[in-house]
């Protein structure tokens, strides 16, 4: 059975590569702290005292160079713990931490503003974390439900100088997908000027720092998000988040990129090629947000998915 060399590497060699990526990133983070103004790895906005309460964790920040900016006036802070991700100019995402109680209005203001920037009225969100694990809060429930159908964000937005008037979220409906094991909630994100349709995909079976229980369900989720995007708004940039917005978020983005790229491109799987596309995608993600694909088990999981793609192709 023919496999490209990078899919034949043993776990020890893969761990060595992954450790090397982490070591270089640690150097980047130190450089950013020591030279915050000149380094491309600076995190000046994230570490400001006035922004500390907007970070879920004290060591996971967006790089200044590609952080998302909130729509605020001159008196407000435009900081949110979220990063623009652009892979090869074709596959774009926003990677974000899971909203805190005090950042719910920031998250929805970001959604609204970015939808405007994309010139569409659609917001697509993939949430790949449960709200709570082992009694630990992983994400605040930032969207309304059928029992409380409206979430009014206007007061909090005004207090933080957000420039979107009368911001509110309204529950429309929900359905559970058995194949993808996710809950799809449809919402409306409203301002006094217009209404945007929100599609909120919640995959809640994935434990923090672990691999998902099934690659099939996660691939189904990615497929369904892409199908929806292509049918309702091709310019929509999906917003992906877990708790910190790096481990599960980075793994899902890498998986989605693999799903879109490799099944359509047999040349990328040349059995004589020494190029490891997964190592390249991890570098690309880490260049744009620290700690993306956070654990070695997540890194290995992606190799196994890529290996299954290759085996399926050989069997066709």
From TrEMBL:
Family that this chain belongs to: Belongs to the protein-tyrosine phosphatase family. Non-receptor class subfamily.
Domain Tyrosine-protein phosphatase, residue spans: 50-309
A Gene Ontology molecular function term of the record: protein tyrosine phosphatase activity
SMART domains, per the entry: PTPc, PTPc_motif
One Pfam family hit: Y_phosphatase
Top-rank lineage group of the source organism: Eukaryota
Protein's name according to its UniProt entry: Piso0_001350 protein
Gene encoding the protein: Piso0_001350
Domain Tyrosine specific protein phosphatases, residue spans: 219-300
